[in-house]
Prior knowledge:
This protein is an alpha+beta fold. The chain has a single domain (23-146), classed as 2-Layer Sandwich (Beta-Lactamase). Helices cover 34% and strands 26% of the residues. It is built from five helices and seven strands, in the order ααααββββαβββ. α3 crosses α4 (43-51). The longest helix is centred in the first third of the chain and has 17 residues, at 25-41. It is found in: Cell membrane. It comes from Rhodoplanes roseus. Its main location: membrane. Keywords: Cell membrane, Membrane, Transmembrane, Transmembrane helix.
Amino acid sequence: MAGAALLVAVPGPLGRAVAADFGSAPEAKAMAEKAAVTLKAGEADALAKFNDAAGGFRDRDLYVFCFETGSGKFTAHPNKALVGTDVRALKEKDGSPLGDKLYAAPKEGAVTSVDYKFPRPGGTDPVAKETYLVKVGAQACGVGYYK
């Protein structure tokens, strides 16, 4: 009890350490918006940045992924094995059609979002997640955060 009171009374670095380990909704949305601006400046350069771990589009558990709006094929993802595969093949652990939801959601000129459950990196239990999606030309890109 006394330990809990101390953490409440002195939030300092101890109180912020856990939250700082994971990206937040505003950070995910801002990264998705930044991805849209980068895509508008040049698709090939943008996709190269999104696929490069040092490209400026990865922060803790936040990252940009993209797919072609026609074929549904991933064009950018930290998991290189997914690049070239169809986003519509993704399923939630319970079999729900996650990929179909992601494929249908992006709209040109707007940030849209999709809620679903997906394991955190390194985990197996599904956790509530929301992904913000943007569409620029023939590319749709998303950034998700765990709630």
